[in-house]
Amino acid sequence: xxxxxxxxxxxxxxxxxxxxxxxxxxxxxxxxxxxxxxxxxxxxxxxxxxxxxxxxxxxxxxxxxxxxxxxxxxxxxxxxxxxxxxxxxxxxxxxxxxxxxxxxxxxxxxxxxxxxxxxxxxxxxxxxxxxxxxxxxxxxxxxxxxxxxxxxxxxxxxxxxxxxxxxxxxxxxxxxxxxxxxxxxxxxxxxxxxxxxxxxxxxxxxxxxxxxxxxxxxxxxxxxxxxxxxxxxxxxxxxxxxxxxxxxxxxxxxxxxxxxxxxxxxxxxxxxxxxxxxxxxxxxxxxxxxxxxxxxxxxxxxxxxxxxxxxxxxxxxxxxxxxxxxxxxxxxxxxxxxxxxxxxxxxxxxxxxxxxxxxxxxxxxxxxxxxxxxxxxxxxxxxxxxxxxxxxxxxxxxxxxxxxxxxxxxxxxxx
Length: 415
Fold this sequence. Notes:
One of its GO terms (molecular function) is DNA binding. By secondary structure, the protein is mainly alpha-helical. It contains 15 helices and 7 strands.
């Protein structure tokens, strides 16, 4: 019998604290009366650990695996080993309208530290979170559980993650078949968009306002030289936030910028899949780097392997983390929005209110398509999927760098 009245407990901690079967979960798993639960939890922990090199991937996989386990054990009342194709179809119906007791209206950590140094489940955590857009929040709209909606992108992610998990369980000889792969016509679960799709990039006018705002902030307060270089790097290099932020074992440093034997400058980073790549550095960014380092009382250009954080904290020796970088970018967006409103460009302001940091990457890539060979862009931004950036073509590094050198920080506006 389904236990929709039972509040699920978090199953997987952070990468640093994840364990096969934490002590506090032993009693919870025993209460489910599903004998294979502990073994399945252990297998899922090992599956998730295989994504330890990417914090974002680990987090998204953890979310989907955790939801399925709760549904399987509490709603379907089956272990994963008994889940069939029809059960997966039922699950896809369930996640469109989960019990409100399984929802929260704000993100909460799964576990919290006790005074004696132990980790315990956070009673505020729920498997599903209802969110509203930034633009809606600006107009005073608050998230309501009755308005929970699953996006098409989320459904696509569910198929990908669960199929990968069941394949892993097959490889571990725990399952004989993958119930997700047995579902045909997966596109039938993706709703067709009836409303205007949001273009997740800044218009030329919006970007001009954003970069002009960054420059103005740096003129008024030199501490914002860091802000200006950050925004310039996002646009001129087309990087992900993880490729500019500090994280344990992966730190963006000045030494990531270095010339090759031809004197061409590149930014070396670690992208998705823990793959190292070189990104061609445009002349304008090299000039911006010199200005930024001069502000930091450093030599105009870094030496190879310079350990100085690329974006040092104002206090402390570490670099800025992803959350801190998001806050800086949001501050620039907010001020640019105010300027757009003052200029009576309301539509542009409202669209910018919905923007996130990742829009800067899409903006950068879109701006380059107009004048750079697609294969050059593909290699710089780390796109390998043919559907994402055309078919794979080997490129010459000199030609790729030459096509990047003239990229302007301020494109010609059509306004």
